[in-house]
Design brief:
Layout: E1 8-11, H1 21-36, H2 42-58, H3 68-81, H4 94-101, H5 108-115, E2 120-124, H6 128-138, E3 144-147, H7 148-151, H8 158-168, E4 175-179, H9 182-190, E5 195-199, E6 215-217, H10 223-227
């Protein structure tokens, strides 16, 4: 592939490369609603839990850093407390733990990796061990992997994107980031002048973002057209 406007690609993982993000969240929420006897639908619970999760994430950067697993558990405890329920969160997030380790993958991903020859960095709000396990299980080729745990901050905080472009040795305006979250991916990358692709597969449970992406797509098959434009 000839090089066009961009010298490198940054790509989110869960919900962008891996499928089943919505299913994993709703499955966990369904089990929580049933186990705790909550008078709310699994989807309604998932949305409320998601809001609390974003609240925790925003307060878990740098010196206050918590791992994603800790953020999931803490936000669940806070959400259940709103229903007057106290419960050990660990067994209730087991479905999400399994998803992080063994996620299904969208069928267009492998063809995309075969077609590109630009350096690629995975940029993920994830704990390092489950993410690297998932990548190795899928045999995906990344030149660099940057996790929130490694840099102790979460997208949309700039630090994780700064580390990614530094690792690839490119300038922000010569990189493009692909992700499924307007809040975490699009807003975070755009804040540094990195071009953005919103991978809108219409399967997110909830997104608090409003930032406008440079491109909106629902499949990786369309991205090579941007790279060679």
């Amino acid at each position: 592939m000839s090089v066009g406007r961009f010298d490198a690609i940054l790509i989110d993982f869960y919900g962008t490369i891996s499928a089943g993000d919505r299913e994993a969240v709703e499955s966990a929420s369904r089990g929580i609603v049933e186990t705790c006897g909550l008078a709310v639908s699994p989807r309604q619970f998932a949305i409320r839990w998601g809001d609390r999760f974003f609240d925790v994430i925003e307060k878990s950067n740098h010196e206050s850093f918590r791992t994603l697993y800790e953020c999931e558990k803490l936000s669940l405890v806070v959400t259940l407390a709103e229903f007057g329920v106290e419960a050990d969160p660990a067994p209730l997030v087991a479905d999400l733990e399994e998803y992080w380790l063994n996620p299904p993958v969208y069928g267009d991903v492998f063809d995309f990796f075969r077609r590109i020859d630009l350096p690629v960095c995975c940029v993920s709000n994830a704990d390092t061990k489950p993410l690297t396990t998932a990548i190795n299980n899928l045999n995906l080729r990344f030149d660099e992997v940057v996790t929130s745990e490694a840099v102790r901050c979460y997208k949309p905080a700039p630090g994780i994107f700064e580390q990614a472009i530094k690792a690839l040795g490119v300038k922000p305006d010569r990189a493009i980031h692909v992700g499924d979250s307007l809040h975490s991916d699009v807003a975070g990358a755009a804040g540094l002048g990195i071009a953005t692709v919103w991978m809108c597969r219409d399967n997110r449970v909830h997104d608090i973002g409003t930032c406008q992406p440079d491109y909106m797509m629902d499949t990786f098959a369309e991205i090579p057209k941007i790279l060679t434009a």
